[in-house]
Sequence to fold (251 residues):
Amino acid sequence: MTWCDLWKDKLSRDCSYQGLYSCTVVLITGANRGIGLELVRQITETQKPLSKVFACCRDPDGPKAQALKALAEKHPDVIMVIRMDVADPKSIQQAALQVGSSTTEQMTSTFNTNVIGPMVVIQEFLPHLRAAAKVHGKPGMSCRKAAVINVSTLGSSIELAKEQYVQFKLLPYRTSKAALNMLSVCASVDLQKDEVLCVLLHPGWVRTDMGGPNAELDVQESVQGMLKVMESMSEKHTGALLDYCGHTIPW
Ligand SMILES: NC(=O)c1ccc[n+]([C@@H]2O[C@H](COP(=O)([O-])OP(=O)(O)OC[C@H]3O[C@@H](n4cnc5c(N)ncnc54)[C@H](OP(=O)(O)O)[C@@H]3O)[C@@H](O)[C@H]2O)c1
Fold:
């Protein structure tokens, strides 16, 4: 059994793994008061990870929507208030359009953080990396010499997505991390002449705000593992995607 098979086997057995990859998007109608408002409040404050709550009401600017507005201001990344009268098909169509454009915005913002951000960080810090490699003097590559470590995820794997995606959605996250993988592989080729190592690491499923409370590892275990892997890396590993135990993740 290959390591990849082990992962697939693990994923199919371990339903709790859904915690990391399930993309929770909720749409609530009549969200400005009563049960609808409390649903928005409790879902926003207790469900992790949570991508978006679309809180729909007939009059978002009216006096009956003030509590919802205040809640949305407290959680601007999560709650989006949308005008929708369920007795009016046109207003339902308008609301659906807003939800669609919000998905596009989410994709853009995730790419900004996970792809464009790392690209600019590498570009801007390149002189420092080159200087560090030069000062080190010895041939080869290592983290002690000069290295870029981009944190990717098992969810970036295109091969595994064929099976995982049905269960674990999170489209912007997956696509942006797959793009980060490509960015890092290309950077590893560009940085080769400067002997700067460039590797992608998957930290495991970790109990953080992102990983949620049911994740397998605490941050100490994950970081301990990643540091051990980093310590052992050489020019052989540049351009690789490894997990926190040093196993190669299939592209
Ligand atoms: N947790 C897991 O199970 C898991 C699994 C696979 C991969 N990962 C990867 O591991 C990395 C860390 O995840 P985590 O679990 O530690 O997540 P987390 O608890 O949600 O922390 C995210 C961190 O990223 C920072 N951040 C977000 N956007 C940023 C930006 N635009 N510029 C600078 N910093 C920004 C946050 O800072 P603020 O506090 O300022 O927002 C925070 O420090 C991520 O790349 C994630 O994809 C995590």
